[in-house]
Structures are given as C-alpha cells and as structure tokens.
C-alpha cells in the first residue's frame, strides 16, 4: 500500500510540474505565481478564518487565456477557484486544503478596450478595471462619464 501512495504522490508532483510549464507557456512569468511565499497572500480569506492550498495563482490578461486555463485544468481534473479582489466574506474565493485547485485572479485584465464618443460616450473594458482607474482615464481624455453599476444605479465621474 505505501508503494501505491508514493506512486500517486509522484504522479501528482509531475502533473503540477507539467501544468506549471504549460501555464507559463500560456501566460508569461508574471502571469504565474508558484512561490509559496507569494502564494500565501491569495490562499487566506479576508477575515483570516479560512486558509487553503494551491500550487499556482494564475493571472491572465485576455479571455482567451482564461478559456485556455479552464480547458487545461478541466482536462487534468484540476479545480479552479476564481478570485476578484480576494475580499470574499464567505470563503468562496479560498481554495480547499487539497492542493488540487488553482486560483485564477483577473487583476491583470484591467484594460479599457475601446471608447466611442459618437452618441454620448461608450466604453468597453476588461474585468478588473476599477472605478478609480476609469475616473482617471475619463479625466485624461477630458470626458465625463456615468458608470452603470447595476440596473437602475449609477455614479457620475
């Protein structure tokens, strides 16, 4: 029995190594965090009540990269824990203790893709553009804007 367990552990370690290489090929070195000291900031919830384990934190910059990450993880049976700002108060953005999940955080998806002033101003942006970043951008291009936060609610900037 110990031989089977050792063989399983070795296979899991090899899989993690192969996946890390594949994730680096998909993203770049800035898009893959696998150093334990740096990972720790992403594996504990905001209230510091829950702590999990992961072998990688991935930071894609495009939706295609997100799709490729999902495909690779699904193919190898690796779970995905999405994180926005890691402010979860219910533990949903914290990996479990198994170490068989990866964290995908969208903080590098912070680009304003396009803007049009033809009829008012329309702006298309990626997932992690913050309100302060949008305000700075609107002031830089000398336009005013209203941000729709949810149906019926908005703020002016």
Outline the biggest β-sheet: 4 strands, mixed
**Gross morphology:** globular
Query: Helical segment tally?
Result: 4
The helix-and-strand class reads alpha/beta
- Which sequence of SSEs, written as H and E, runs from N to C? HEHEHEEEEHEE
The helicity comes to 25-40%
What Rg is obtained from the alpha carbons, in whole angstroms?
19 Å
What's the SSE blueprint?
Elements: H1 2-26, E1 32-33, H2 36-39, E2 57-58, H3 63-75, E3 79-83, E4 101-105, E5 112-116, E6 122-125, H4 131-140, E7 146-150, E8 153-156
Parallel strand pairs: 2-4, 3-4
Antiparallel strand pairs: 1-2, 5-6, 7-8
Helix pairs in contact: 1-3
Description:
Helix 1 packs antiparallel against helix 3. The protein has a 4-stranded mixed beta sheet. The protein has a two-stranded antiparallel sheet with strand order 5-6. The relative contact order is 0.12. It is globular and about 55 Å long. With 157 residues, it is an alpha/beta fold. The N terminus is likely disordered. Helix content is 33%, strand content 20%.
């Amino acid at each position: 029995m110990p031989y089977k367990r050792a063989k399983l552990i070795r296979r899991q370690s090899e899989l993690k190594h192969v996946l890390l290489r594949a994730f680096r090929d998909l993203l770049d070195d800035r898009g893959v965090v696998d150093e334990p000291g740096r990972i720790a900031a992403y594996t504990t919830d905001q209230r510091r009540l829950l702590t999990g384990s992961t072998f990688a934190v991935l930071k894609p910059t495009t939706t295609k990269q997100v799709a490729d990450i999902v495909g690779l993880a699904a193919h190898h049976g690796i779970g995905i824990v999405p994180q926005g700002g890691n402010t979860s108060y219910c533990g949903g953005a914290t990996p479990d203790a198994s170490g068989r999940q990866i964290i995908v955080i969208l903080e590098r998806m912070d680009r304003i893709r396009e803007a049009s002033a033809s009829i008012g101003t329309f702006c298309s942006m990626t997932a992690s553009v913050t309100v302060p970043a949008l305000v700075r951008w609107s002031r830089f291009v000398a336009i005013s804007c209203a941000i729709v936060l949810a149906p019926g609610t908005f703020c002016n900037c």
